[in-house]
Specification:
six-stranded mixed sheet, 185 residues, alpha/beta
Length: 185
């Protein structure tokens, strides 16, 4: 099992913030990456990034990606939050598996996020050598995590928005969903 982590909207002072933990369980990591790249090529997307794309491309990407073999765990927080505590709380409650081969976080995140993540893992008795950073441009699975984080935040910001149907489509992939977390400030 390989885990990819991305977040959306954590910098905002209103609406919701979300972490999406995408668990990619595949025999061959390259297979799912090739599938994601094929979806991007099919829709003329060079590198999926939720915030940079119009709804038409978001919808097309999520529809095709929802057919891939992965599961998702999501934590939703109401802004404003204390970012460090929210991230630690989400990881403590969502990251319960110990038998994973690697955990990738988006490489654009500041170094302190990686250090905090490693602390949470050490506290849980998990080897920190499993934590790796990877830029979204070079990791199709990080781009999938970005899509799911963006979708979850869009849905919780406005449940009747364009995200409603996409959320219904992706719900079957969600194995854990924590809503709230305000006590972690």
């Amino acid at each position: 099992m390989i885990i990819f982590i991305d977040e959306s909207g954590i910098h905002k002072q209103i609406d919701h913030s979300s972490f999406a933990l995408v668990y990619v369980e595949v025999e061959n990591k390259e297979k799912i990456e090739k599938s994601i790249e094929a979806i991007e090529q099919k829709h003329g997307i060079s590198s999926f990034h939720w915030v940079d794309l119009p709804w038409k491309l978001r919808v097309a990407f999520i529809k095709d990606a929802s057919k891939l073999d992965f599961t998702v765990k999501i934590a939703i927080f109401q802004n404003p939050i204390y970012r460090t505590h929210a991230m630690e709380w989400a990881l403590q409650h969502l990251l319960i598996e110990k038998n994973f081969s690697a955990l990738y976080i988006d490489g654009k995140e500041p170094k302190w996020i990686e250090r905090r993540l490693k602390k949470v893992l050490r506290d849980k008795g998990i080897a920190i050598k499993k934590v790796k950073t990877e830029r979204s441009a070079s990791s199709p699975c990080i781009r999938l995590a970005d899509a799911l984080a963006g979708l979850s935040r869009a849905h919780f910001d406005d449940p009747d928005s364009k995200a409603k149907d996409l959320w219904k489509m992706i719900q079957k992939k969600i194995t854990a969903q924590l809503v709230g977390g305000q006590a972690c400030r």
